[in-house]
Specification:
globular; alpha/beta; Rossmann fold; about 10% strand
Amino acid sequence: MALVKKLFLIDAFALIYRSYFAFSKNPRINSKGLETSAVLGFVNSLVEVIKKENPTHIAVVFDTPAATVRHKEYSEYKANREAMPEGISVALPYIDKLLEAFNISKLYADGYEADDVIGTLAKKAEKQGFITYMMTPDKDFAQLVSENILLYRPGNKWKPTETWGVQEVLNRFEIKDVSQVIDFLGMMGDTVDNIPGLPGVGEKTAKKLLAEYGNMENLLENAHLVKGKLGEKIQAHKEQGILSKRLATILLDAPIEIDESALAVKKFDVEKVQALFEELEFRNLAKRLMGQSEVPEKVEKSKSNTNQKTSSNDGQIDLFAIGFDDTPPAPSYQTIEDLKTNYTLVESRELRAALLEQLLQQKSVCFDTETTSLNPLKADIIGMSFSYQKNEAYYVHIAEGQEEAVVNEFKGFFEHTEIEKIAQNLKYDYKVLAKYGVHIKAPIFDTMLAHYLLEPDQRHNMNVLAQNYLNYSPISIETLIGKKGKNQLSMRQAPLERLYPYACEDADITFQLKEIFHKKLDGSKSYDVFKKVEMPLISVLSAMEIEGIKIDVDALADFSKKLEQQIVELNNNVQKLAGIPFNLASPKQLGQTLFEHMKLVDKPKKTKTGQYSTSEDTLIKLKGKHDIIDDILEFRQLQKLKSTYVDTLPELADADTHRIHTTYQQAVAATGRLSSVNPNLQNIPIRSEKGREVRKAFVPRNEAFTLLAADYSQIELRLMAHLSQDKGMLSAFQNGEDIHATTAAKVYQVELEKVSREQRSNAKMVNFGIIYGISAFGLAQRLGIKRAEAKEIIDNYFMQYPKVKDYMDLSIEHAREKGFVETIMGRKRMLNDINSRNAVVRGYAERNAINAPIQGSAADIIKMAMIHVEEALKEQDFKSKMLLQVHDELVFDVHKKEIDIFKRLIKDKMENALLLSVPLKVEVGLGPNWLEAH
C-alpha cells in the first residue's frame, strides 16, 4: 500500500502571535533579559504537531513586508493593525534559525500574503496526491477546504484541536457549499483586516442572506428585494460588497511550486538546535527533545544515549524517533474532574430556606446569577449560585414564572449591610436582581475590578483568572449549550444536571479568587481606590444604565433624510467638478481622479502600497487648490455621521421608551477612565456643526424636566499644576486667570492684555500637548509652523514652567525604577515597556508615565463626584437623575422645580470631590437637549 503523502502548511504569524499571547500573563524572560515566549510557544507547537500528526511533508509560511494585491486595491486594508509587539520582533530571528536547524522549509512570496501561498500550495498539492492540512486558527481558510484539503485549528487548554473537513465547514457556517464561505466573509467584513463588509450585516444576517440569495452577486443584484433599512444600506454599498468579497478571497496564483524533497520531514541538526536552546535557555524543552537531563554540552553526548535513535554519525536526530514526553510544557490545569467538590442543587422552598439561614450566618459569600441573556436589562434569571467555602457551592434553580418570588426570598441576604457579597462583574448581577426589586447593598467585592486594579493592562475574565491564579480550567459553556449556531441551546434549555455544577463552579472559583486578590490588595493604596471608588461606583453606574436617556427618534429620522440629500448633492457636485464619473467612496478611484486626471499636485503623496494617499490629513493640505476638496471632505464627514450615529442610535433605543441604555465599562481603560458601548458615548461628535446636531437628539424624559450638563474646566491642566507644584501655574489657577492667555504671555514674552487670539490658541495647543508628551515635530504639524519655531515655543514653555519639566522627568525616572506610576489616590498604571530597547515602544511608555497620573487622577475625581452626587440624590429624594458620564462631563435629567438647588449641589459635589492645590472649576449649562445644555 502506497504511503499517504501528508502535507502540513503552517501559518507562521498566526502561530507566533498565538504563542506570544499565551504567555502574556507570565512572559518567559531569560537571564539576559530576552523575552522568549513567542519562540518557546512556536517550537512547542511545531514539535507537538510533528509527533502527533506524523506529516510526511511540512513547511512554515510567512508574510513579507512587500505590498500585496489587496493593499494596492484598498489602501485601508489591515490599516487598523497595531504595531508588532517587541516580544515578537525579537523572536523572529531565532525562529528563522530554529527552522533552519530543524531542516523545515520557510516559504513566502513577495506581493502575496501567507494565506495566498498556503492556498496556492494546497491546491497544487491536491493535484499531486497530497492530503494537506492548513494549520491556523484563522477561519478564513475554510474557503479552501475540500476532500483532500483540511483546516487544522490548534487547540488550547479550553478547546481541543479541531480538524475541519467539508461537513464541518458546512455546519459551522450553516451553508450548502464551501464556495459560500467567501460570500459569508465578504458580507460580514473583518474588523481585524479592516475589510468593510456590508453595513448592518453580522453573522446571523449573513447566514440568512446566503440562505435566501446564495451568494454576494445575487444578493446585490436583488438588493431592492431586501426590506427596510438593511436593503437601503446594501443598495448604497454594492461596490463595497464586491470589494469586500475580493479582499476576503484567498488567491491561488502565488508564484510558488511544490518541491517534494524540500518539503519532506527531515532529521534536525542536533548541534545547531543545542546551541540555540542553550542561548535561549530552553532546558526543559532540550530535555524533552534530546532525551537528556540537561542541555548536552557536546553532540557526542546525545549520540551515546542508548534510548535515543540517531542517524549514523551526522549529528542529526529523527523527529519521529526522539524519546521525549509527548506532553507539551504548558501547565496542566486541573478541572472539576480532578477535585473533590461538594456542589448541591437546591430546588425546593424548604432547601432554599435552609440555605438562606446558612448564608445569613457568614461574613462573606460569593454569588452568581445564571440568566437567559447577556443583556441584563433583557435577561430573565434562571438560577443563583452561592459559595462561602472552597470547593463547596449551592445552586438555586428558578423555574420559569417563579423568578421574582424566589429572588425575593433572598432579599434579606442581598440587602444585608454586614455580609460581604462577592461576585465577578457584579454590575451585571446588580442590574439583573434590580429587575425583581432586590438591590445589593455594601459591603461588596468584585473580583473583576480587584484584578483590574492589580493588573490594569491584563484580561480580567474569569476563565483567564482561574488559569493564572488557581491553575484551574473551568467547565466550558459549550458543554452546556453547544457551539454557536442554529442548534445552540438557551441557558434555560440546558440540562439541569450539567447546569448546576457549571453554576456552582463559577461561584466557587470567584470565592477562591477573592481570597487571593484581597491579600494582594490589602494595605496598598490601590485597595483604597478599590473600596472608595470602584466598589461604590457599581451601584451608581447600574442606576444610570437602568435609567438610560431619551432620544428624539423622529428628529434623527428627519436629520437622516437631510443628510442623505446633502450626500447625494455633494457626490453629484464632485463628479461635475472632476469632469469624469468615478466612485467617490473608493480611495483608489479618488486618488486617480485627483492626481492623474486633475493633476492637483506635481508630486502626490503615496501610501506604502504605492497608491495615492487620500487620507483626511492629505486632503486638508490640498484645501484651496480646488473647490472639489472641500466637497470631498464634507461628503466623507456626512457619510460617517449618518452611518455611525444618525442611523444607528435609533436602532439601539428601546422600541417602547425610546431610551438608550449604554453600558459603562469599568475595567477596560488602563488609565481608570470609564468607557461605554452600545453606544460609545465618548465618540458622539461635538466639533462640527452637523456633528453637534446629534447631541440635539438627546432630550429630557418629558416637559417637566430639562437637561443639565456639568463639565470640569481644564481638569488635566489643574492636575498638572497640582502634581508639578509649579509656582507660575499654581498662581494662574489660584488667581482665576485664563491659563492659555497667561501661558501665551509667558511663552511669547508679551504683556497679558496684548496676547493675540492666535498666540492664545497656540498656547492652548502647547498646554494640552505637553500633558501628552508632544514633540517639536508634532507641535509643528499641529500649528502649521516650522519645527525650529515649535522647539523654541516648547523650550520657552519649560523656562516659564520649570517644575512641569521636572515633573515629567521624575515621572519617567520613577517608572524606570518601579515599573509603574500612580494617581493621586493610588491607582497604579504598570509600564512594562519603560526600559524597552525599542525606542518607539519605550517612548510610548514614557509618554504614559507623564500622562497616566494626570488622566487617572481625573478619572478618580469624576468617579468620586458621581458617588457623592448619587448619595445626595438618594438622601434628599430628588426627582432629578444622573444619566450620562462622557469624558469630564456629567449629564442630568433635572426636574424644573429642582433646578436652582440642583445646580448648587452639583457644583459643590464636583468641585470638592478631591482637595487639590488649585481649585477645581465646574461649568454648568441647561437646555432642552444635550447640545444646548453643554
